[in-house]
Automatic annotation (TrEMBL):
<dbReference type="InterPro" id="IPR053863">
    <property type="entry name" value="Glyoxy/Ble-like_N"/>
</dbReference>
<dbReference type="Pfam" id="PF22677">
    <property type="entry name" value="Ble-like_N"/>
</dbReference>
<protein>
    <submittedName>
        <fullName>Glyoxalase/bleomycin resistance/extradiol dioxygenase family protein</fullName>
    </submittedName>
</protein>
<keyword id="KW-0223">Dioxygenase</keyword>
<dbReference type="GO" id="GO:0051213">
    <property type="term" value="F:dioxygenase activity"/>
</dbReference>
<keyword id="KW-0560">Oxidoreductase</keyword>
<dbReference type="InterPro" id="IPR029068">
    <property type="entry name" value="Glyas_Bleomycin-R_OHBP_Dase"/>
</dbReference>
<dbReference type="InterPro" id="IPR037523">
    <property type="entry name" value="VOC_core"/>
</dbReference>
<feature type="domain" description="VOC">
    <location>
        <begin position="3"/>
        <end position="126"/>
    </location>
</feature>
Length: 134
């Protein structure tokens, strides 16, 4: 079996988070969904487990990062086109998220957004053929 990634993120309100990410086009695996968690499908090998904070806390001994004061991670996801990145970030903002840094190097384009819980998602498009030669 090929390796898969399961990113676990704490969320304050599972229903609001599901609505937010559904607006961005993500789907969820009902088999791994209940009132405490859901499994968001990013690709065939990447999944994001959204866990309500008390349930998330049951897996750790440390405090949950306060994303209003600190960044615990930057989550980068490749996207097929620049236009799709713009569409997704604008949808995130219209759904309660916050647009962050945008970068356009010509061969690489990225734009980040913050979700409802302060997690930072960086959407990236690259054209390796256009990458500068060093």
């Amino acid at each position: 079996m090929a390796s898969q990634i399961f990113l676990n993120l704490p969320v304050k309100d599972l229903d609001k988070s599901v609505a937010f990410f559904t607006a961005l086009g993500y789907t969820f695996n009902a088999q791994f969904t209940n009132e405490q968690a859901t499994c968001m499908i990013v690709s065939d090998s990447i999944f994001v487990m959204l866990l309500v904070e008390p349930f998330f806390k049951s897996f750790i001994d440390k405090e949950i990062a306060d994303t209003t004061k600190t960044t615990e991670a930057l989550i980068g996801i490749s996207i097929d086109t620049k236009a799709k990145i713009d569409e997704m970030v604008n949808t995130a903002v219209n759904s309660g998220g916050k647009a962050l840094k945008k970068t356009d190097e010509g061969w690489m384009y990225s734009w980040a957004y913050e979700d409802l819980d302060g997690h930072i998602w960086e959407l990236i498009w690259m054209d390796p053929a256009g990458m500068p030669q060093s």
